[in-house]
Every structure is written in C-alpha cells, then in structure tokens.
Amino acid sequence: MTQQSNTQAPLKNTQTPQNQSSVVNTPIVLTIAGSDSGGGAGIQADIKAMSATGSFACSVITAITSQNTQGVSAIFPIPLEHVVSQLDAVFTDLNIVAVKVGMLADSEIIKVVADKIKQYQPKHLVIDPVMVATSGDLLLENSAITTLKQELIPLADIITPNLPEGAALTGKAVPESEAEMQDMIEDLRALGAKAVLLKGGHLEKDENSNDLLILPTASAVITAKRFPTKNTHGTGCTLSSAIASFLAQGNTLPEAVDLGKQYISRAIAHADELKVGQGHGPVNHFFAGHGNVR
C-alpha cells in the first residue's frame, strides 16, 4: 500500500479550501463469482476481504446460491446475457486494476469471462478455480474444466487451487503429503498461468498449513500455523481476493501472496470470535476492524 509522506506543509496551508474535496485514490478490484446467501463465501467473502485489505470492491455475479453454514440447497446460474451486461457495466466505467475469478457455472460463462478479460485487459488476474465441493463432488463438468484450462487459466497472473482442485486440473491423484504436492509442480506449470499457489490446507494432520507457490523457474513453501477451528468457510475465496487486493495496491506477486497468506491466517485465527450459524462458520474478515489489516 502507498505510504503517505511525513513532510508537513506550512501551517497556513494545512486547511483544505471549502470548494475542494479530499480524494482517496483507492485501487478498484473486481470479483467475478457466485453469491453466498449465508455471507461466508463467494461474492460476499470477496467483498469483505477486498475491503478489509484496503481496496474498493465491485462485483459480477455468475450464480445465486441458497446456502448457509450447513450446506448448499440450491444454485441458480445467472443468464449469460446478464453476466455480459454486468461485465460491460463495470469495465466501461470503473478503473479496475485487478480481477479475482471464483465460481463459474459452465463453459459458456467461462468463455464470456475470458473474452471480456481479453477485451478490457485488467492489469492483474487471480483465478480461484472453484470446481470441487467440500464433499469431493465436482462442481464443474469435465467439458467446463477443459474450457477453464484452455480459455481462462493461461490469462492468469496466478491460480489458487486447493489439493482436490489441483488434482482435477492435472489428472493426478489428490496429494496426501507435501512431497506429493511437490510432484505436481510441473503439471501445474504446464497449465500456462504465470504462477500457481497450491494450497495445502487439506493436509489436516500436518501441524502447519503450508502452501506451495510455484513460479516459472522456482517454487517456495509458504508456512503458517494451523488453527483448530471448524469455522473455515470461505477461506479460498478470501485468500484469492486478498491476493488480488494486494496486487492492485502495487505489490509484487510474491509480496501479494505473502500478505494474503498472513491475512487469511489471522482471519482464521480470529474465526471463533464470531458466532454465525450452526455449522462451519466463516472466517473473521474484519478481525482488525474496518481498515488496514497489515
């Protein structure tokens, strides 16, 4: 984030004239994803994470879900023409610096989003490839996964799959250890994104929650403490949105990933301070209050 100068003007010039307004140049980040009526994941989590990390969030909704902390009971995909109209509306008016892509319902929506990204060319693109439910069920048909790999992922600065999603993208078995995560590196690089963050949160027996950042010629393990809580709904949405937010603020990709990891770790650490629902509750996006969370 840009730091303000400590240089002070002469006292007589410190007051802003009444006919001038104080304008804050907040970077704008777009989330393209589904709506979570329970507020813990999807568009709602994205907007909270982007706001908490200091960016202005706007949105394009791809589907409306009926869900709460106990599960999803219905999904209504937004008609394609309305997805298109939302994309055109925000891109033609707002100076969108970074885009985060989450849930995309089918091949047609994936193609439309890819076409609009090519048309409007935002500076940064973060893709959270939402394709596997917590139960292990695929949320995208195989044809849509193929479209995602061919049309959208090669445009990305970074994709952020969890272990089941990494397996679905590469055709390999779901990793059961950090060594097996390492074995997936070349297959993930071959997808064509500039970088991949393979999230190791599913390795629940490990003391730490370690992610693997895969760059074109190097890789690094990003370590964070694992916290014993069931309130982890929306962690993937939140992390990818935070990374997009930090990229929009001018951080390098490794810096944005590191800051995003710190943010989600602290949001999980404070999750039990919230009492939301009967099941797997959300992380605490505003653990530091509304403002800077660094």
From TrEMBL:
Keywords assigned: ATP-binding, Kinase, Nucleotide-binding, Transferase
Lineage: superkingdom: Bacteria
GO MF entries: ATP binding; hydroxymethylpyrimidine kinase activity; phosphomethylpyrimidine kinase activity
Enzyme nomenclature, EC number: 2.7.1.49
Region Disordered, residue ranges: 1-20
Keyword Metal-binding belongs to the record: no
UniProt xrefs under CDD domains: HMPP_kinase
Xref: PANTHER family: HYDROXYMETHYLPYRIMIDINE_PHOSPHOMETHYLPYRIMIDINE KINASE THI20-RELATED, PHOSPHOMETHYLPYRIMIDINE KINASE
SUPFAM superfamilies reported for this sequence: Ribokinase-like (SSF53613)
UniProt cross-references to InterPro entries, sorted A to Z: HMP/HMP-P_kinase_dom, PM/HMP-P_kinase-1, Ribokinase-like
An example Gene Ontology CC term for this record: cytosol
Pfam families (UniProt xref): Phos_pyr_kin (PF08543)
One BP term from GO: thiamine diphosphate biosynthetic process
Protein name: hydroxymethylpyrimidine kinase
Metabolic or biological pathway: Cofactor biosynthesis; thiamine diphosphate biosynthesis
Residues covered by the Pyridoxamine kinase/Phosphomethylpyrimidine kinase domain: 36-284
Keyword Transferase carried by entry: yes
